[in-house]
């Protein structure tokens, strides 16, 4: 029989101070998943706390962005549905206007690019060393060296084959 004077020897736990909950025993659960989880939480929680916070922030940000994307797509579809009759009725105005604006922007872009290239070439040939001229000079010297090497190699190759084809020549 259990010793009634020593409370730790009781076989059954009693509620404390007339409460309805029974304190947990000190025995650990032998379930493999719970022991693995306990081991992971005890051994590696300080190392992964920053990563867990980053992962939590990633999921919250991703959820907010996904919600905003859904709202944007929904509003766009509803706007297209609402304004589609107006767009169809006024399409004889929109199509030439679109072509005119696209042509103007393309022309302006091409003119700007041409002006930038001509300005760079002018400064390069005047010796003002514009940005990127060092790379152009290096590429030009490498191309010249490679061409000279190929010319020397091919000249020797063709000269030896001509002697073999016509030994008396």
Automatic annotation (TrEMBL):
Keyword Repeat attributed: no
Subcellular location(s) of the protein: Lipid droplet; Membrane
Domain of life: Eukaryota
Main location: other
Keywords attached to this entry: Lipid droplet, Membrane, Transmembrane, Transmembrane helix
Pfam families per record: Oleosin
Membrane topology annotation: Multi-pass membrane protein
Chain residue ranges for the region called Disordered: 1-27
TM region positions: 48-68, 75-95, 101-122
InterPro entries: Oleosin
Family the UniProt entry places it in: Belongs to the oleosin family.
Name under which the protein is recorded: Oleosin 16 kDa-like
